[in-house]
């Protein structure tokens, strides 16, 4: 089937099979390798992208289901003011260690902070329940969100 959709604001069209996942199409066909493949079972969040603004695990999202939709990956979010602010805050707060989980965290958090300017720490931790980080212990990530929120309020 032909899949026509928007990726990071640009139209894309390609042939996909029913078994293709959105993750496979993004990484292997469109060379958007910022989105990571971790568990491949919808458990770790490394593959998180936004579909029509909502975070999804792209490893278990059928590519064909993205037809007509808008997909945002970490590459696109790097050019987004909020995404760039989060990335800088992650680096400053030590929220990036091996970095494998980071694109998924940034992507989920962009969706959270687009909806809510000032989420509580509990809300942030709940929103990140589907994103696993084996390195940081999460506190630095929560600190990075707090710094981003503070910067938006100050800015
Ligand atoms: S790779 Fe998709 S949730 Fe782990
Ligand atoms: S920084 Fe290594 S898994 Fe999160």
Distance between the termini: 46 Å
Task: Assign the CATH topology of the largest domain.
Answer: DNA polymerase, domain 1
CATH structural class of the largest domain? Mainly Alpha
- Number of helical stretches of at least 4 residues: 6
* Count of individual beta strands: 5
The major β-sheet equals: 5 strands, mixed
Integer-rounded radius of gyration: 15 Å
| CATH homology-level superfamily of the largest domain | [2Fe-2S]-binding domain
Q: Largest sheet, order of strands side by side?
A: 2-1-5-3-4
Instruction: Determine the structural class based on helices, strands and strand pairing.
Output: alpha+beta
Average pLDDT works out at 96
Order of helices and strands: EEHEEEHHHHH
Low-confidence stretches: none
CATH 2nd-level architecture of the largest domain: Orthogonal Bundle
Estimate the global geometry from the Cα principal axes. globular
Bound molecules: FE2/S2 (inorganic) cluster
Domain count: 2
Assign a percent range to the helix content: 40-55%
Strand content: 5-15%
Note the topology.
Elements: E1 2-7, E2 10-15, H1 22-29, E3 48-51, E4 54-57, E5 70-72, H2 74-78, H3 81-93, H4 102-115, H5 121-127, H6 139-154
Parallel strand pairs: 1-5
Antiparallel strand pairs: 1-2, 3-4, 3-5
Helix pairs in contact: 3-4, 3-6
Residues 37-40, 42-47, 57, 59 line the site of one FE2/S2 (inorganic) cluster.
Labels describing this entry:
single chain; DNA polymerase, domain 1; 5 strands; 41% helix; binds FE2/S2 (inorganic) cluster
């Amino acid at each position: 089937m032909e899949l026509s959709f928007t990726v990071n604001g640009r139209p894309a069209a390609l042939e996909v099979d029913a078994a293709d996942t959105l993750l496979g199409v993004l990484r292997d066909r469109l060379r958007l390798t910022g989105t990571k493949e971790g568990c491949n079972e919808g458990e770790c969040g490394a593959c998180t992208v936004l579909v029509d603004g909502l975070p999804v695990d792209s490893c278990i999202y059928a590519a064909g289901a993205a037809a007509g939709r808008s997909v945002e990956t970490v590459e696109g979010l790097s050019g987004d003011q909020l995404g760039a602010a989060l990335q800088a805050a992650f680096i400053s707060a030590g929220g990036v260690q091996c970095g494998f989980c980071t694109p998924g965290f940034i992507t989920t958090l962009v969706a959270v902070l687009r909806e809510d300017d000032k989420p509580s720490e509990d809300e942030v931790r709940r929103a990140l329940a589907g994103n696993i980080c084996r390195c940081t212990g999460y506190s630095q990530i929560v600190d990075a969100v707090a710094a981003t929120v503070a910067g938006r309020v100050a800015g």
